Amino acid sequence: MAGSSACSKAPQWKRAGYLKQPTSRVAILKAADYDRPLASIVADGIKACKLDVAGKRVLLKPNMVEFDPGGVINTNPRVIVAAIEAFRQLGARDVVVGEGPGHHRDTEYLLKASGLGQALKEQRARYVDLNEDAVRSMPLESTFTKLGRLYFPETVLGADLLVSMPKLKTHHWAGVTLSMKNLFGVVPSAVYGWPKNALHYAGINESILDINSTLSLPRFAIVDGIVGMEGNGPIQGQAKKCGVLILGEDLAAVDATAARVMSLEPTQVPYLAEAERFLGNTTLKSIAQLGEDIGSVQQDFAVIDRFQRLKQLV
Questions:
Q1: What integer is the mean pLDDT of 116-138?
Q2: Residue 176 pairs with which residues in a beta bridge?
Q3: Across all residues in the chain, what is the average pLDDT?
């Protein structure tokens, strides 16, 4: 059932699906608006997290859902360009942008309307439509869904580093949609339908966990929290200025930190509560906070009625 919280307390992962480390570094860096020198801020965050990217093939996976004239739904193109520049400056061998939009089938339209297409052209950066890429079937490393296997794009599986670049948003079914949920976009709609119907039927929380356990290649997250979305996200919410970028290697830790920046309790988000058991760190004591303190940048994000429990911070 879409949005269900039926995540079992019994272990449901194989040894290869256990990705949790003793502690995780997460950087919160101020970026007041999109006109700032974002590439240097992103580079500072990558270095603070001690991520070595020299010689690596990097795939940036932004969140691109619908054309949004107000710039609230999608990862802002300026943040994506900043990431391209930062990874290149730090010695990455190749930086590619890839996304598999879950709502809009006309990717060329989205690229043009959002301005991302022109920005990538100016950067001479390649774009891959992950919905139409060649795919490979992989057995799942956890069993929260009953899917057994998933098809993943070869571009994703061939990367040395997968960078999830979500928008800081609430979500009307999952509570929040951040770097872990953003990986829905690497599961091709050409196989699973629009808007990733098979994953919704299998359960959103469950699918998030199975995707993240199975994609065990090195990952990093850069959350666009300069302007986020509150309320009835991920599409129909309202803009919420937050003025931050949130970065880290542990996607669960990044998402827990991002939730706290939104004044939301990560233990009340079903997939984050389960992720703490085997995918990453979500408790304050297990996250090495870098950059800004959460309290100094925290904003009060509104949520729809069914997720009012997320406001009970512990």
A1: 97
A2: 170
A3: 95
The fold of the 25-311 domain, in CATH, is Rossmann fold (3.40.50)
Q: Could you tell me the pLDDT band of residue 5, with boundaries at 50, 70 and 90?
A: very low
Domain-by-domain residue ranges, the chain? 25-311
Reported as a single tens digit per residue, the pLDDT across 37-55 is 999 999 999 999 999 999 9
Predicted local confidence at residue 23, as pLDDT: 98
User: Which pLDDT score, from 0 to 100, does residue 68 have?
Assistant: 82
